[in-house]
Design goal:
The chain has two helices and no strands. By secondary structure, it is an all-alpha fold. It is elongated. Its main location: membrane. Its cofactor is Na(+).
């Protein structure tokens, strides 16, 4: 019985040790890859800002789309309930 217990503890130590070493290497390799990517890949170019007039046109179109969406949703609920 003592031999079985020592083998179980041995397996426990080796198993947990292997998992710990693997996870440690995974964290280190992820950190190294992150540093390499940040070093060699350029940052994305900033997006151009929209003018205020185009924002007003889009908000007016959004209002029309919302009215249509509300009508479609109301019809679907009415159809579902009947």
């Amino acid at each position: 019985m003592d031999n079985l217990l020592s083998e179980g503890l041995n397996l426990l130590v080796f198993g947990m040790g292997f998992v710990f070493v693997f996870l440690t290497l995974l964290v280190i390799s992820t950190g190294v890859m992150s540093k390499l990517v940040n070093k060699y890949v350029p940052a994305p170019a900033p997006k151009p800002q929209r003018s205020r007039s185009s924002a007003k046109v889009q908000s007016a179109n959004a209002g029309a789309n919302n009215d249509e969406l509300i009508a479609v949703m109301t019809a679907a609920v009415h159809k579902y309930r009947s």
